[in-house]
Automatic annotation (TrEMBL):
Pfam families: ARD. This is acireductone dioxygenase (Fe(2+)-requiring). Its cofactor is Ni(2+); Fe(2+). One of its GO terms (cellular component) is plasma membrane. One of its GO terms (biological process) is L-methionine salvage from methylthioadenosine. It is found in: Cell membrane; Nucleus. It catalyses: 1,2-dihydroxy-5-(methylsulfanyl)pent-1-en-3-one + O2 = 4-methylsulfanyl-2-oxobutanoate + formate + 2 H(+). GO terms for molecular function: acireductone dioxygenase [iron(II)-requiring] activity; metal ion binding. It comes from Nesospiza acunhae.
């Protein structure tokens, strides 16, 4: 994706239309830009899940999403300018900055945003059960 021209990028516009991403905002994660920076960084790095998909598009900077695979092992996903990721509802994950300590990201949602993170263990939520069912089906 063209992060330098995200406001007019036809590819982003098409993704938003196709996936019904009707809401978006932009967050900058840097000690000089994010209120309660130290607390937020710790919160982002706590292993958690959401009941909705988490969609992030990196406009500037870089960082890492860590996700659990089907064997409960960590997979680190390096994210940099122009990258977009969709983490499905129910997947355990965490986020951290890299050595640059800076990222500017677009957050996208279907409908109104829901920011609630449920720290592990959160296995009883329907979103987690549905995600685990999906993993089991993919294994066969």
């Amino acid at each position: 994706l063209d992060a330098d021209n995200y406001e007019t990028d036809p590819c982003l516009k098409e993704i938003r239309r196709a996936e019904n991403y009707s809401w978006m905002d932009i967050v900058t994660i840097h000690k000089d830009k994010l209120p309660n920076y130290e607390e937020k960084i710790k919160t982002f790095y706590e292993e958690h899940l959401h009941l909705d998909d988490e969609i992030r598009y990196i406009l500037e900077g870089s960082g890492y999403f860590d996700v659990r695979d089907k064997d409960d092992k960590w997979i680190r996903i390096s994210m940099e300018k122009g990258d977009m990721i969709t983490l499905p509802a129910g997947i355990y994950h965490r986020f951290t900055l890299d050595e640059n300590n800076y990222v500017k990201a677009m957050r996208l949602f279907v409908g109104e945003p829901v920011w609630t993170a449920y720290n592990r263990p959160a296995d009883d939520f329907p979103a987690r059960k549905q995600y685990m069912k999906f993993l089991a089906e993919e294994a066969y």
